Amino acid sequence: MLQALTHLVEAPFRVVLMVTLHQENLGEVPKIWRLARDLGLSGIIFERFVPEGRGKDMASAVLRKEEWQRFLEELCALCGFDIAALSLLSYRAFWVEFAEGVSLLGAPCSLGESFCLMPDGTVFPCRRLPIPLGNLLEEDLAVITTHPLLGKLKNRESLRGKCRQCSVAGCLGCRALAYAVLGDPFGEDPHCFLQEARISTTSLS
Ligand code: SF4
User: Fold this and answer.
1) Which of 166, 182, 191 should be mutated for ligand 1, with most atoms under 8 A from CB?
2) Which of 107, 138, 195, 196 has its CA 20 to 30 A from that of 118?
């Protein structure tokens, strides 16, 4: 793989490494970072493993809440940003750009704005949320993309647990992770460390 990356950089292409984080590679983040920099890659995208499809067989590798928090802290440190991990809570994935210095782009949830089209025409709300909204071979796209489930998933009143009570603007938790881990797309986001972070901030002050 290293050789292929080197050839691509020399070609020259903009090469971005995409990394899906789970328990077995979480400790490799600094090494992956150094590798990408040393090879002259354009950047790295970090995402979380969501155990869906064949990934269900390794469901135990999904990050724990504390591990996700630790990763966000590490990401801020690697970028050289003096920001709290808490400020990254509402983003589902991150794109680190090495172009001029380091810049960090956070990807918010795009539920209802983008969709996942499967080879048999089935449309899912997200590639990680395999609840069918309809089938493009049988229904109009406009009907599928206005499916009532979408509105419900984006309505805080429909959510459960911490995400229902929460007042963080622009965050409704990851519905795909809730579905994969709890079996409930309306459940609270299993990776949210908001309460813990607030408690530790309060006890420090
Ligand atoms: S409780 Fe849910 S909605 Fe609030 S910040 Fe955490 S993940 Fe987002």
Assistant:
1) 166
2) 107
